[in-house]
Every structure is written in structure tokens, then in C-alpha cells.
């Protein structure tokens, strides 16, 4: 049945119609009482085009309706605005349509609060369309314009793949929230009791933190009271003891010889657990044995996901004991092996690095064997220095050896850094674009790109206003763009891997329950675990081919099957 556009109206009903390849109507407009009714009645639709998956899909999931593919117009608008050098402009359907018609552009509604457990009755909805605008017509016009903008890109086939992957990610994010990560509240409470001690009435610090606070104060002398949760108080106490600190970061404290350091480091560790994943967190975020958060696809400039509340992407190692599969089920935990170095090999087309990444073993060990006299750590430092822009110390010396052995890989990130310093737009392999330097509202500045190797420079963002390469701001942006082309391309691979894995799990009882950058967890019946492991491996290889074409690079996983998340790590 091809693609169908579907729009909801104020009374809850929907109107929909089939689309042609340019986004125009390919048949009559039809009506349905609800989105669920419309989707159920048309199982053959290959892709649903709608305003926003975050708005449309959760109600469908609650009614037991799933869709295979969609095109999220607002997610696509954000990517296309970035591609055109217009980061930060409103991305809503209403804003996109206003730009098409030359009308005043409405601001996007504010995002939901990060600690919001459920939508508020007074939470802002989508940016409204003008009263006389027909939602389905608006959707079709914006979609058709997006297809034309995509076709005009330097590499439209790559940008189309990115938009498809981004929309797939929005479906997966909603399904992850619906499924939830298995979470044992009883084990979590036991762990909190062991770590923090009993709770005091009134919400004060638990016993263990209170004891540590007392030890910290005594370490500075009789009668001294120090609030270890207040950095200024801690810095002041050390200053009075003759020790100057710039901050209370753990790495800086470890360099200090003072009896307060050990209890202070322990206090910081436990305080973080208490405030971020303590009893209040358990009350707010775990329901019916599942931890559910709102994943935000493309929440960072590189395209990596973030989460809106609950700290899903920073689960403390000690609390992973509470992540336990249901009886008779297992957790398949898969970590991509040295993902960013493998991505660098694929996007730079460096023959030596691609050859090194053609196996499924330890890539850093292989690099050490090839260019660093067998020293794995030197190879790792060198490669991470190339990706993250280390400019001093041993990393710089090792980087010189890396440049001699893998010149095209290092040249690739070097050019991305230079383009960033010049204030140019820099793109990932598929076309996600870094924020312009010194962007002013309304600037677009897409200068068009050459073909080699596409991921790097694509024209100055601000013309003559780009900062000189010698300034600290320019160097900082260069370090960002150096990493952006690798980390962003890795995020694209991850989206395609998730989409492929989701497709392979169709028809089974297995469900995706967690995703974090290069790690995925699938919850499945124990008899399906072996098939899930195979599906993860196949999805990783397929994602590499889709994203980067045919290369020797292998995208492998370290995979564990366990009843408890902690036992898999």
C-alpha cells in the first residue's frame, strides 16, 4: 500500500491518504475515528508519515498497535535544518509550514521537565496550526518540501538513509519506554540499605552519609563543621588547612594527602547514588517491575540519544544487581567492540586501519601489533588522541606513530578539525551536521560540498565572521568537529543496528528494553537467547554495510546472556 500520510484533528479523528513518490496525494482522503482504527485497517502500509512519533505512537502502543516504519516529519525537520546550517530554529510542523508560506514562525513548545513522571494536564502540546489550516494538507506540503530538500543535498541517498534511521529510532524509543527495563524493587531497596543505612524521618541524609559527614568534619579539627555536599564549604575547609583546590572533583581530591579525602570520596560516591537513584528515584521511576524513562533520539549534536528523566544512561554499576530478568527469561547484553575506531576505519577508508578492523578480536591489540611494538595501551592512546584531539603528553608522541602507520585515518579527523576551526559546517558520513560557529538566527550558510570524503567540510557557516584558526574558541570547535565526524557516524551505525535488530526480533517474544550509545539489552525467553545473540551480530554487520558500503570492517559485539545485568558486565 506504499506510504500514507495521517493527521489528527481536534476532535480526535484522523484523516489520511496515500502518497506518491514526491509526497503528493496518490488517492482520495479517507477518515477514521482514531489513529488506532486507521492503522489497524491498513496493515499493508509500508510507512506512515505523521507529525511526530512521540505524539502519535505511545497511544497506539497502549492499544496494542505497532507499526513497522514511519517518517517523523518533525525529527526530519531538525536534521534538515541542521544540514542547512539553521540549527536551533523551530522544528515543529507548524514552524516548517510557516517557513514554506512566509508566515511568522511559532516557537517550539518547551520540552517536558526532566523529572516529569507523567504528562501534566497543563503541559504544552504541539505548536498549533493556524485555525484555517487543514492538518493533513499541511503535513503533505511539509513532507513534499522535505523530500525536495533531501533530493537537493550533496549526497541525497545518504541523507535519506539518515532520515529513515532517525524515524526508526523514534519508534524504538517509544517501544523501549513501553517495554521498560526489568527492575527488582526489593533488590534495589536491599542495596540502598546496605550502602546508605537506614533513612531518617523528614528526608534527611541516611545514616551512612551522616556518619561520613561527621568523619569529614572531624578530619579538619575539633569543632569544625563541614557540609560535604557543598563544594564551596569543602574548598574553604581545605584552604584553611593550607591546601588549595580548584574544585572538588574526585581526580583532584585524589592528589591531596589529607585524612578528609578518603571519607569525602566515599561520601561523594554514596551521595550520588542517594540523590540520583535512591528511594525517591525508585518511587518515581519504577512501576510494575519495570523502569521506564523517555528516550530522546538525537538528543545531542552528534545524534547520540539522551533520556528525559530517570538517568537511564547512567545506571550505577552497583545498582545493576536490581536489573533481573523475569522468571524463565534472560537478558542478552551486547556491547559493540571498539565502535568508534572501527567507524573511523570505515569512513576514512584507510586501508591499513580497515585491514586491522576486519577481524572480530581486540582492535587495540591488533593496532599495537601492527604499529606499536605490541603495546596495546600505546595504540589505544594514539587512536583516542586522534579522535579526541589530544595535543600534549604521550598521546601526541603516539599520535605521530599512528599518522605514519594509518595516514588516511588521521588525515580524515585532522581535516574535520581544520574545517571546524575555519567555522565551516562539518558532517557525519550520512549527513548529520555540526552546529555552525557563531550561528546567528536566520543564517543558513550551506555552501555545498565536494565528494571527497563528504564527511568533512561543507562550506563556511558564517562567511568572513568565522573565528580565526588561532583563537582558543576556534581550536575548541576544531576538537569538537574532530570527534563529531566519528562519534556522529557511530551514532548513525547504532540507529541502523537497532532498526535491523528490531526487524529480526519481529515474531518472537523477545523485546528491546535498553539502549545506550553502543550497548543494547534484549529481554527474552531463555530458549530464544541463542537466536537473539545471532540477531544482534547480524544486525551489526548489516548496519555497517548500509551505513558505510562494502568495506572489510567488521562490527562485532561482546555479548553475554545472564539473568542479572550485573553478571553480564
Brief overview, please?
This protein has 569 residues and is of the alpha+beta class.
Outline the secondary-structure elements:
Layout: E1 3-8, E2 14-18, E3 30-32, H1 35-40, E4 47-50, H2 53-62, E5 70-72, H3 73-83, H4 93-101, H5 135-151, H6 156-179, E6 181-182, H7 185-196, H8 207-219, H9 231-240, H10 250-253, H11 261-277, H12 279-285, E7 286-287, E8 290-291, E9 294-296, E10 306-308, E11 329-336, H13 339-348, H14 351-356, H15 363-371, H16 376-388, H17 393-405, H18 407-421, E12 424-426, E13 457-460, H19 472-505, E14 511-516, E15 519-525, H20 529-548, E16 557-562
Parallel strand pairs: 1-4, 4-5
Antiparallel strand pairs: 1-2, 2-3, 6-8, 7-8, 9-10, 11-15, 11-16, 12-13, 14-15
Helix pairs in contact: 2-6, 3-5, 4-5, 6-19, 8-11, 11-12, 13-18, 13-19, 15-16, 16-17, 17-18, 18-19, 19-20
Amino acid at each position: 500500500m506504499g506510504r500514507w500520510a495521517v493527521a489528527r484533528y481536534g476532535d480526535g479523528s484522523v484523516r489520511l491518504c496515500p502518497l506518491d513518490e514526491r509526497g503528493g496525494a496518490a488517492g482520495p482522503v479517507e477518515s477514521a475515528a482514531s489513529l488506532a482504527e486507521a492503522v489497524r485497517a491498513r496493515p499493508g502500509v509500508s510507512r506512515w508519515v505523521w507529525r511526530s512519533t512521540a505524539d502519535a505512537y505511545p497511544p497506539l502502543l497502549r492499544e496494542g498497535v505497532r507499526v513497522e516504519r514511519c517518517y517523523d516529519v518533525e525529527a526530519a525537520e531538525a536534521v534538515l535544518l541542521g544540514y542547512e546550517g539553521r540549527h536551533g530554529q523551530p522544528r515543529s510542523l507548524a514552524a516548517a509550514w510557516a517557513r514554506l508560506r512566509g508566515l511568522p514562525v511559532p516557537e517550539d513548545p518547551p520540552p517536558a521537565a526532566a523529572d516529569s513522571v507523567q504528562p501534566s494536564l497543563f503541559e504544552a502540546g504541539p505548536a498549533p496550526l493556524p485555525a484555517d489550516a487543514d492538518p493533513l494538507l499541511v503535513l503533505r506540503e511539509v513532507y513534499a518540501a522535505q523530500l525536495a530538500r533531501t533530493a537537493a543535498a550533496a549526497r541525497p541517498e545518504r541523507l535519506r538513509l539518515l532520515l529513515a534511521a532517525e524515524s526508526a529510532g523514534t519508534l524504538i524509543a517509544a517501544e523501549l519506554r513501553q517495554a521498560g527495563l526489568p527492575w527488582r524493587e526489593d533488590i534495589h531497596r536491599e542495596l540502598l540499605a546496605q550502602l546508605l543505612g537506614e533513612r531518617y524521618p523528614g528526608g534527611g541524609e541516611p545514616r551512612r552519609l551522616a556518619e561520613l559527614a561527621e568523619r569529614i568534619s572531624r578530619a579538619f579539627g575539633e569543632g569544625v563543621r563541614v557540609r560535604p555536599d557543598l563544594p564551596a564549604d569543602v574548598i574553604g575547609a581545605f584552604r584553611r588547612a593550607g591546601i588549595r583546590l580548584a574544585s572538588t572533583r574526585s581526580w583532584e581530591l585524589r592528589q591531596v594527602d589529607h585524612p578528609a579525602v578518603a571519607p569525602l570520596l566515599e561520601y561523594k560516591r554514596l551521595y550520588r547514588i542517594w540523590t540520583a537513584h535512591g528511594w525517591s528515584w525508585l518511587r518515581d521511576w519504577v512501576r510494575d517491575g519495570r523502569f521506564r524513562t523517555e528516550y530522546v533520539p538525537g538528543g545531542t549534536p552528534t545524534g547520540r540519544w539522551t533520556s528525559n528523566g530517570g538517568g537511564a544512561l547512567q545506571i550505577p554499576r552497583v545498582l545493576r544487581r536490581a536489573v533481573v530478568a523475569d522468571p524463565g527469561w534472560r537478558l542478552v547484553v551486547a556491547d559493540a567492540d571498539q565502535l568508534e575506531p572501527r567507524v573511523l576505519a570505515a569512513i576514512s577508508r584507510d586501508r591499513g586501519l580497515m585491514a586491522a578492523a576486519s577481524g572480530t578480536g581486540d582492535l587495540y591489540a591488533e593496532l599495537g601489533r601492527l604499529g606499536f611494538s605490541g603495546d596495546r595501551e600505546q595504540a589505544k592512546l594514539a587512536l583516542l588522541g586522534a579522535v579526541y584531539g589530544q595535543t600534549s603528553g604521550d598521546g601526541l608522541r603516539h599520535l605521530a606513530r599512528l599518522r605514519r602507520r594509518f595516514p588516511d585515518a588521521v588525515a580524515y579527523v585532522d581535516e574535520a578539525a581544520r574545517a571546524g576551526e575555519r567555522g565551516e559546517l562539518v558532517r557525519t558520513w550520512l549527513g548529520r551536521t555540526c552546529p555552525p560557529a557563531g550561528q546567528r538566527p536566520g543564517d543558513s550558510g550551506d555552501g555545498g560540498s565536494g565528494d571527497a570524503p563528504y564527511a568533512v567540510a561543507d562550506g563556511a557557516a558564517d562567511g568572513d565572521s568565522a573565528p580565526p584558526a588561532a583563537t582558543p574558541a576556534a581550536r575548541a570547535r576544531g576538537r569538537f568537529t574532530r570527534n563529531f565526524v566519528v562519534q556522529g557516524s557511530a551514532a548513525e551505525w547504532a540507529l541502523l543496528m537497532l532498526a535491523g535488530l528490531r526487524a529480526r526480533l519481529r515474531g518472537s517474544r523477545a523485546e528491546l528494553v535498553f539502549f545506550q550509545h553502543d550497548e543494547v539489552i534484549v529481554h527474552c525467553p531463555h530458549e530464544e537467547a541463542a537466536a537473539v545473540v545471532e540477531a544482534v551480530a547480524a544486525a551489526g554487520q548489516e548496519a555497517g554495510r548500509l551505513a558505510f558500503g562494502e568495506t572489510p570492517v567488521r562490527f562485532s559485539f561482546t555479548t553475554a546472556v545472564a539473568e542479572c545485568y550485573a553478571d553480564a558486565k
